[in-house]
Design brief:
Layout: H1 7-24, H2 27-32, H3 42-50, H4 69-81, H5 88-100, H6 106-117, E1 122-126, E2 141-142, E3 147-156, E4 163-170, E5 173-180, E6 185-189, E7 199-208, E8 210-211, H7 217-252, E9 254-255, E10 258-259, H8 264-292, H9 298-324, H10 334-344, H11 352-366
Parallel strand pairs: 1-4
Antiparallel strand pairs: 2-3, 3-7, 4-5, 5-8, 6-7, 9-10
Amino acid sequence: MLKSLHEDDRSAMRESLSRFLIAEADEATLRRGIDFSQGYDPKLWRQICEMGLTGIAVAEVFGGAGGGAKDVEMVCSQLGRALNPMPFLDSCVIGTGLLTACSRNTHLKHIIENVVSGASIVAIGGNAPFVPLQDSRHNLTIHADHTISGTVSLVLNAATADFILIGITVDDQIKVFIVPTQANVVCTAQQANDPLLRPCAVRFENAAAIELNALTETDLEQARLRGVAALAAWQAGAARALFEVTIEYLKTRYQFGRPIGSFQALKHMAADLFLEVESATSAALAAAEAIDEEKLEVARTVALAGFVCTDVFREVAAQAIQLHGGIAYTQEHIAHLYWRRSRAMLPMLGSADKHREDYLKALEIAA
């Protein structure tokens, strides 16, 4: 089990990352990402790698920091605040989690080390529960010689990835493969509602693949739980950042000679949103703690964070549009970009309704 970093070290890293993102990942940088094929400034990703954050949840034997889910929560909440679409969740949380479970394979160990150093990026596709955007209509075929043919859609960051990690259901069993993108792999950009996201349809033509056949059901479930918890932290961070932007607007926008934030109706809306944001932050942190401490109620706690943080991000984004008035409906306003991301994230790693079902099932089991 990975251990969390010391609280003082985590606090220092949080402060350092926060200062870095404020200075280097402001709104202007975010908007420049629209013009990059990655959806973000590659220089920014290199700097994140140089800070050692790409290996924060990876054991020291692979060059990582040896941290746990609470450390991932810290990073994701800060990246969420900046609305940055860098491939941290896919490559450095879910991807490395699955790969390290099979690390006796020397080639896979080399891939992990490259991800930790920032030399490689792993994208994830398929219909397995740990896949960020699941494609239930894929037509992938696994041949006897361990090559893959067919097409899978909705693979985030595939066009710039060095490896595609595929998780699909075969005869009611989840099979996981990793495929280098150098040969027999073609990525075609797909349209996204969010101008910063880069989903692709990936076509494999007898592409060589390595099966991660050492994975157990526990490994697969751990990858899903850690992914959901990391995504929840990202959403909670984004919701808080947008809430702060909205409160600042309410303080500085005047009507009838007074700030609109002094109007009673808007005060009530802001108070309700504050409670929602605090709930999301607490839920995301509780999920990370449950994973690190291997609590019996980990599935229930992660499911709770999954639907709470999804709902809160969506609600804060929608209300921010309303509280800003007509200006926030335009893409030129930052609230519009948060709103688009909140909508794009609704199906990621399971919908809020799916997480509610998981939560209720976990309650029934515990009863």
